Amino acid sequence: MNPLFLVISAVLAYCIGSIPVAYIFGRLLKNIDIREHGSGNMGATNAFRVLGKGPGTAVLVLDIIKGIVPVTVLASAFGLSDPLSLVIIAVAAVAGHNWTMFLGFKGGKGMATSLGVLIGLAVQLPGLRIILGAATLVWLVLFLATGFVSLASIAAAVSLPILMVVYEAPFAMKVMAIVLCIVIVFRHRPNIKRLAKGQENRVQIFRKRSF
Question: Are 86 and 80 in contact (CB under 8 A)?
Answer without folding.
Answer: yes
